[in-house]
Design brief:
9 helices, binds dinuclear copper ion, mainly beta, 673 residues, binds (dicuprio-$l^{3}-sulfanyl)-sulfanyl-copper, globular, six-stranded mixed sheet
C-alpha cells in the first residue's frame, strides 16, 4: 500500500503514451464499428422524444437541452455566460445574474448537472449547474428552462466537484477542486507553504422546498486535498456523502507527477446528518467572507444581486465521527453510489482496478474501529474493512460509473476509450463497447437516482476525430447513444454537441412536458418600466439619460419614431412584449449597439442600454420573425448634436412636423391605429 515507484512510473508512462497518441488506445476505425441500429433512435417528424437530456456546455458556460433518443438540440440555456441570442447578461435586468464578489463575470466553465429529487427520484423541478472557474452554482427552472438563481461559493477555487444533490433535495453540495488559504486568512503566502496554509472546503447549500432558493447552510473545512466528483448516499446510506479526493500528497507543483506519487488517495465519507447536529449544537464558527447571491424575479422580470458577508463553517477537529477517509487507489476522479445506496464505486483514473466499497461494511468498520491511522486528524478506515471487492482489469483510466437499476454498473474508460458493463454483486465484467473517442462522462437517464431508467446510455466524448465532416482546426464535440436494454450494449446514434459536454442528466419528458410555462401574464408584470398597453408608451429625459417605455405587439413597436436624442445620451429601451400567446417573443436591436439584442417573452419587459455616439438616423427593429409583417416591425431614432434644440418627441403612426424646444414644451403623443 506504500509508495511504489516502479508501478507509478509504469502507469504514468502508459497514461502519457495514450494521451500523446490517442491512436494507440483507440478502438479500430469508426467505420468498422458503425453498426448502430438507427431505427432505435429514430423519432419520426412531429413525434416527441422520450427524455429531455440536460447537458453541460463546458467552456461555453451554458447548458444545452437535447431530446433522447433522437439527439435533437432543443435549446441552449444561458447560465454563466452572456448570450447575445437572448440578451442574457446584456440586458439591464439580467446583468446582475452574472455579478460576483469579483464584479461582473460574464463567462464560466460549466461541467456538471444535478436534477432535483424527491425520495431519490427526479421530481422535475430544477436543474443545478456548476461554474468551475469563479465558483458558482446556478439553479435552472425546468418550467421555463431559464436560469433563476446563481450563488457564488466562498472558500472555494475551481468549483469542479459540484453540484451533487441529496435524495430529497435537502442540499446541493459543492467541494473545492483547489485547496487555498481560506478567504478570511491572509492569502499572500508563499505557494510552497501549501502544506501549512492551504485548506479545502465543502459547502452544503440548502434548497428551499417551495421556491428552490439556495442558501449556504454550512461549510466543512477539510484537509488541503483536491476534490473531484462525488455523490450523496441514498436509501440506506442517505445522510452520508462520498467525495473523491486526489493530491493527498499536497503537491503544489507539477501535479501530474507529484499528485500521483502515492498508491492510494481517499474517498472522504461525510455523515452530513451528524454535521447538521453539530451546526445545531453551535459547533460551527462564523466566518467573514464575501459572495454574491443573484436571484431573478419573474414578476419584476429583473434580477437582484446581493453581496453576503458571512457563513458558518465546521472544523472536523471539533466534530468527532463526522467524517472518515477511505483509502482508494490512485487519484480517484469519480465516486458513484448505486441505486440501493449500498455500493460506493470509486474510479481511480490511474488505477488498474475499480474498488467498490460497501456501506454496510463501512458502518461495521467504524463500529469495530477497523482504522488505519489518521490523515490530517481524520480517521482513516482500513481499505479491506470497507471493501466489497474490486473489479479486476476493467480497462484503462476508469472515470465515472452509472447504473441501470438492474444490478449493473457502467464505467467510462478514458484511456482505453470504452464503456465497461459489470455486475455489482460479483464484480464480473459482462460487456465492453468502444466509444469514439476518449469518453469522459456517461449518463443513464435516472442513473444517479434510486430508480434509473435502464434503457439508454449516453457517452460524452472528448474527441471525435474521424466521426464527422471536418470543420477546420476544431472538430465538433459529440455524444453517443447506446441501447442498454439487452445484455449487450449497442451503439445506436452519434450526435454532435455544443461546447464541450461533461456530465448530463436525462429526465422522462412526461415529468415536465405538461408543466411548461407558456407566457408571463401581463397583469402580473411589476417591472419598474413596464408599459401596460401601447397608450402607456412614452419617452422621458432625466439629465443625459433617456428612458423609452416601448411596447411590442404584432407587428409594430411603439413608439417607432423618436427624435430629440442628443450625442452623449444614454438611451434605455424598456420593451414590453404585450403578446399573450405562446411562442411569440419579440426582439429589439438598434444600429451600433455595443452589447446585443434583447429577446422579450410574451408579457415580459426587458431593457437595452444604448449610447448615442454620433448624429444621424438609427433604425431599430424586431429581431425575431414574429409574423408575415415582421420585417415591417421597425422604427427610427434621430440623434442631434449635443447642444441641439430639437425637442424630445415620439410617435407611432403620425407624421408631425419637426419640432424644436422653442415651440414644444412637452413631448409628443401616440396616435391609436
Ligand atoms: S469531469 S470527465 Cu469535469 Cu466531470 Cu469527469
Ligand atoms: Cu416582432 Cu418580429
Amino acid at each position: 500500500m506504500k509508495f511504489n515507484y516502479f508501478k507509478t512510473y509504469v502507469v504514468l508512462i502508459m497514461t502519457l503514451a495514450c494521451l500523446v497518441s490517442m491512436q494507440s488506445c483507440k478502438p479500430k476505425t469508426a467505420q468498422s464499428a458503425a453498426s448502430g441500429d438507427a431505427s432505435k433512435s429514430f423519432v419520426a417528424p412531429g413525434k416527441y422524444d422520450e427524455f429531455y437530456n440536460i447537458v453541460s456546455g463546458g467552456f461555453n458556460g451554458q447548458v444545452a437541452v437535447y431530446g433522447i433518443p433522437s439527439g435533437r438540440l432543443f435549446r441552449i440555456i444561458p447560465v454563466f455566460s452572456q448570450s447575445p441570442e437572448s440578451g442574457y447578461g446584456f440586458s439591464e435586468e439580467t446583468k446582475p445574474m452574472l455579478n460576483t464578489s469579483h464584479g461582473f463575470v460574464p463567462w464560466d466553465d460549466q461541467h456538471h448537472i444535478a436534477l432535483s429529487q424527491t425520495k431519490g427520484e427526479h421530481d422535475g423541478r430544477w436543474a443545478f449547474a456548476n461554474g468551475n472557474n469563479t465558483p458558482r452554482i446556478a439553479r435552472i427552472d425546468l418550467t421555463t428552462f431559464r436560469t433563476s438563481e446563481i450563488l457564488e461559493i466562498p472558500n472555494s477555487a475551481g468549483n469542479h466537484a459540484s453540484p451533487f444533490i441529496t435524495e430529497n433535495s435537502e442540499y446541493v453540495v459543492a467541494a473545492t477542486r483547489f485547496s487555498i488559504p481560506l478567504d478570511d486568512q491572509n492569502g499572500d503566502v508563499p505557494i510552497n507553504t501549501y502544506k501549512q496554509n492551504f485548506k479545502g472546503s465543502i459547502s452544503f447549500i440548502s434548497i428551499d422546498p417551495a421556491s428552490g432558493e439556495m442558501n449556504i447552510a454550512f461549510q466543512i473545512r477539510t484537509p488541503g486535498v483536491n476534490f473531484d466528483l462525488s455523490r450523496a448516499g441514498k436509501g440506506k446510506s442517505h445522510g452520508w456523502f462520498f467525495f473523491s479526493c486526489y493530491n493527498s500528497e499536497k503537491a503544489n507543483t507539477l501535479l501530474e507527477q507529484n499528485a500521483s506519487a502515492k498508491d492510494k488517495d481517499f474517498v472522504l465519507a461525510v455523515n452530513w446528518k451528524k454535521a447538521e447536529e453539530y451546526v445545531k449544537a453551535g459547533k460551527a464558527k462564523k466566518q467573514a467572507v464575501k459572495y454574491a447571491h443573484n436571484v431573478y424575479n419573474e414578476n419584476t422580470h429583473t434580477a437582484t444581486s446581493t453581496i453576503k458577508t458571512e457563513i458558518v463553517i465546521l472544523d472536523p477537529a471539533d466534530c468527532p465521527d463526522m467524517m472518515y477517509m477511505i483509502p482508494c487507489p490512485k487519484s480517484p476522479h469519480g465516486t458513484d453510489v448505486d441505486p440501493t445506496g449500498e455500493y460506493i464505486v470509486a474510479s481511480g483514473k490511474l488505477a488498474a482496478s475499480i474498488p467498490v466499497f460497501s456501506f454496510t461494511k463501512l458502518q461495521k468498520a467504524i463500529a469495530d474501529k477497523a482504522f488505519d491511522g489518521e490523515y490530517d486528524g481524520i480517521t482513516v478506515i482500513k481499505y479491506e474493512a470497507a471493501l466489497h471487492g474490486e473489479v479486476v482489469k476493467p480497462g484503462l483510466g476508469p472515470l465515472h460509473t452509472e447504473f441501470d437499476g438492474k444490478g449493473n454498473a457502467y464505467t467510462s474508460m478514458f484511456l482505453s476509450s470504452e464503456i465497461v458493463k459489470w455486475r455489482l454483486s460479483d464484480l464480473q465484467v459482462l460487456d465492453r463497447v468502444p466509444t469514439y473517442y476518449a469518453i469522459g462522462h456517461l449518463s443513464v437517464p435516472g442513473g444517479p437516482t434510486a430508480k434509473p431508467h435502464g434503457k439508454y446510455m449516453i457517452a460524452y466524448n472528448k474527441m471525435t476525430k474521424d466521426r464527422y465532416l471536418p470543420t477546420g482546426p476544431e472538430l465538433t464535440q459529440s455524444a453517443q447513444l447506446y441501447d442498454i436494454s439487452g445484455e449487450k450494449m449497442k451503439l445506436i446514434l452519434d450526435f454532435p454537441t455544443t461546447g464541450e459536454p461533461h456530465y448530463a442528466e436525462a429526465i422522462p419528458a412526461a415529468l415536465i412536458q405538461s408543466k411548461q410555462r407558456k407566457i408571463y401574464k401581463i397583469e402580473e408584470n411589476t417591472h419598474a418600466y413596464v408599459s401596460m398597453g401601447e397608450g402607456k408608451a412614452k419617452v422621458e429625459r432625466n439629465g443625459n439619460q433617456v428612458h423609452v417605455w416601448m411596447t411590442a405587439i404584432r407587428s409594430h413597436l411603439t413608439p417607432d419614431n423618436i427624435e430629440g436624442i442628443k450625442v452623449g445620451d444614454e438611451v434605455y429601451f424598456h420593451v414590453t412584449n404585450l403578446e399573450q400567446d405562446w411562442d411569440v417573443p419579440h426582439g429589439f436591436a438598434i444600429k451600433g449597439a455595443n452589447n446585443a439584442e434583447i429577446l422579450i417573452m410574451p408579457g415580459e419587459t426587458q431593457s437595452l442600454k444604448w449610447v448615442a455616439d454620433r448624429t444621424g438616423i438609427f433604425p431599430f427593429y424586431c429581431t425575431d420573425f414574429c409574423s408575415a409583417l415582421h420585417q415591417e416591425m421597425s422604427g427610427y431614432l434621430r440623434v442631434s448634436p449635443a447642444g441641439s434644440n430639437v425637442a424630445l418627441h415620439f410617435s407611432t403612426g403620425t407624421n408631425k412636423p419637426a419640432v424644436t424646444a422653442d415651440t414644444v414644451k412637452t413631448s409628443g403623443g401616440i396616435s391609436k391605429n
